[in-house]
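Our consortium's second objective concerns turning raw sequence data into structural hypotheses that experimental partners can test. To show how far this objective has progressed, the report includes one record in full. It was chosen at random from the queue rather than selected for favorable results. The single chain below, 537 residues long, was entered without modification.
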Amino acid sequence: MQKLSYAHGASDIPLKGETIGENLRKIVEKFGDREALVVVEQNYRASYKEFWEQTTALAKGLMAYGIKRGDRVGVWAANRFEWVLMQYATPRIGAVMVNINPAAKTNDLQYVLGQSRIDLLVAAPCFRQTDYVDLLNRVRPHCGYPKRTVIMGQDWERMIRAGEKITDAELAEREKSLQFDDPINIQYTSGTTGLPKGATLSHHNVLNNGFFIGERMIYTENDRVCIPVPFYHCFGMVLGNMACTTHGACLVIVGESFDAEEVMKAVTKEKCTSLLGVPTMYIAQLEHPNFSKYDFSTLRTGIMSGSPCPIDTMRQVQSKMHMEQITVCYGMTETSPVSTQSYATDDIEKRVTTVGTVLPHVEIKIVDEQGNIVPRGVPGEFCTRGYSVMLGYWDNPETTASIIDQQRWLHSGDVATMDENGYITITGRIKDLIIRGGENISPRELEEFLITHESVADVYVIGVPSVKYGEEVMAWVKLREGYNVTQDDLLRYCKSQIATYKIPRYWKFVNDFPMTISGKIRKGEMREISAKELGLG
């Protein structure tokens, strides 16, 4: 009988049946004097004891401003120490923190404020060239939310002082009333079509996922983790912050946005043992002219996620950056987010061709169009079930029911295969499949082929409309520095090695790709741009 594509994460380590606040309190009792948070750009440092005291003061400030259990508190800022304090103060009083994309403009902001019905918005004064206060003033006449606003640097200390009238007993009473299945976070998924959906996560979702992610990297209180990825997304908030605090490790934050040299400076100065990033972040460091000036010898592990990693990049990260135990993982916001992750001891092939194996206490399966589990090695839709599956989309039961079935399996929409040892390979999105004249074409397959050309630094393949074939293949290509390669050169490279129907009809040479803030490629946006430029409608 064929072995089926199903696996569950058996573990001797139990799930944590506690709130985020209860877990943090235990960590503070064990590691109070150890450094908890460093933010280089803001010249901020705090031990776990100091961090706990600051979240206590902030929790009281939020209570003084009338925030009750279940109220929504929006956070609109890039990576700052205030963001981290909000992440740990809001669950201590049972508030639901709503992550707002720092790049949000008026339409996005108005939608999120209204859809989640935000009671209090805590925002930075600005980010890059965007004046948040001005944006808020433009949105207010058209939206009844937020009910109240706090601007970091202007109103922050006033809110903290207001909390002085809240007693320790009042805060303790609030914390005692909480349950670990309560909702504490709403994250709006970065779809390329349709309105964003607010994935609603609980203490149980986020706390346990962060803990088991850290376990895969063998984190201890001695680790110092550089986190240049955004807090707004699960990558920064869970794979970064929560994986650290559940182990007593130190969070090292560089600044509000990614800068390759600033990251390398921080890794060197703070003697970081772990580094997070998407492949393009690692490539930017490896190719930086000052790379050799920095010391990466303290690095041991980390995460490379967001998009597939070229094997050459992985080799360089392991050798030149000393990250021999770097891991890769797979997940989605709706699953808190990680479902599978490689082990720190997996060989390099496993780390570039798969996304690891199932995390503890999680179930995964791969199914066909009828919902039947397929044999190992056969592609199908990746599904997951367990503690990590979101409570649902905020105030959107119909859309929730379209992704979570009656047996609580969450259907990812991703095409995957499972090998004999349970390792998962993601081959693409179901909707990304290109169907050209009845032939199914996998964009991932073509991307992996084209990246082998010596001139190609990065490449993404999409389908664009075609009257004759339904869809045609198009490749967006980023060339390596110093190469002057033409479309004809790449066509010749393809013709001798891949089937004619798979060869891209259209080519676009670019310096960058449209990306979400979490580092995922926005293929929907690429299709829209390409169709317009090519006049394909």
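The partners drew two points from this record. The CA atoms of residues 118 and 146 lie 5 Å apart. The first strand starts at residue 6 and ends at 8. Both points have been shared with the crystallography group to help prioritize constructs.
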